[in-house]
Amino acid sequence: MRTINVQEIIPVVKKLCIDANYYLGEDVISVIREYAAREESTTAREVLNIMLENYELAATEQMPICQDTGVAVVFVELGQDVHLTGGDFTEAINEGVRQGYKDGYLRKSMVDDPIMERVNTKDNTPAIIYTDIVPGDKIKITVAPKGGGSENMSEVRMMKAADGIKGVIDFVVDRIRRSGGNPCPPVVVGVGLGGNFEQSALLAKKALLRKLGEPNPDAKWNQVEQDILEKINKLGIGPQGLGGRTTALGVHILHKPCHIASMPVAVNVQCHAARHKSAVI
């Protein structure tokens, strides 16, 4: 058994919030460079190169990649041999978010009531926290700031088994078609299959954490991802909706078993600033 004081979590979460918003992963930058090199549209190629310049400026000047610094979505893998002391685990994460968004000069986007008053909480809390209990005596924390523009283009559909893989592919492609330029393409598309209504949505969001360019470990699902990506990039939406062959940078699928009467399918859309950083305590 390993004892960890929850106060140790605060500076870790603070740094992750700042780093995720300042420094885009090299995997995303590399894939965008590849698409820029082969993009046929002059306008699209120019937009992609401006994005690359923006990422470099954000890292050099230590400022946010985008003005929408997102909801603080926090994934925690909590080792079952960890004993937490020193306070409230959830509050420690929220304090880390509070400090990160304040000291990192990140926009605070959370409102306390979703419809009636919509008063800004002024510190970007509460975070949205998902905790998985895993073997071991460590805590892995991943902060994935999620902007509103791309999140608003996401969708869950309760499909029938009879819809088959073609129905799934058609739904995902049509979701991106209907999204147009709203989610700031090129996008990364997370797809969650199976489970139930809410688990499919969580699977879609977790799918976005996979390294861009890394193939699905299951060959048949890797082929489905490539088929969907090809169809999406033939839509002609292009970077920022200005046309071109680069509408999506990747499609990532996660799946779970489901009820015999159900086939839940969720699409979680992520803009080109596919931000997430992780740390282990």
Q: What this model shows, in words?
A:
This protein has eight helices and ten strands. With 281 residues, it is of the alpha/beta class. The strands form three sheets. The chain has a four-stranded mixed sheet. The protein starts with a strand and ends with a strand.
Give me the secondary-structure topology.
Elements: E1 2-5, H1 9-22, H2 26-38, H3 42-61, E2 71-79, E3 82-85, H4 89-103, E4 128-134, E5 139-146, H5 148-151, E6 155-159, H6 164-179, E7 187-195, H7 197-207, H8 219-233, E8 248-258, E9 263-270, E10 277-280
Parallel strand pairs: 1-3, 2-4, 7-8
Antiparallel strand pairs: 2-5, 5-10, 6-9, 7-9
Short synopsis of the structure:
With about 280 residues, this protein is an alpha/beta fold.
Can you write the helix and strand succession as a string? EHHHEEHEEHEHEHHEEE
Radius of gyration: 19 Å
End-to-end Cα distance? 14 Å
What is the number of domains? Answer: 2
Average of per-residue pLDDT values:
97
Q: How many alpha or pi helices?
A: 8
Q: Strand-residue fraction?
A: 15-25%
Neighbour order of strands in the largest sheet? 4-2-5-10
**Cα shape:** globular
Given as residue ranges, the uncertain stretches (5+ residues, pLDDT < 50) are none
The SS-based structural class is: alpha/beta
Helix content: 25-40%
Characterize the largest beta sheet: strand count, sense, and whether it forms a barrel: 4 strands, mixed
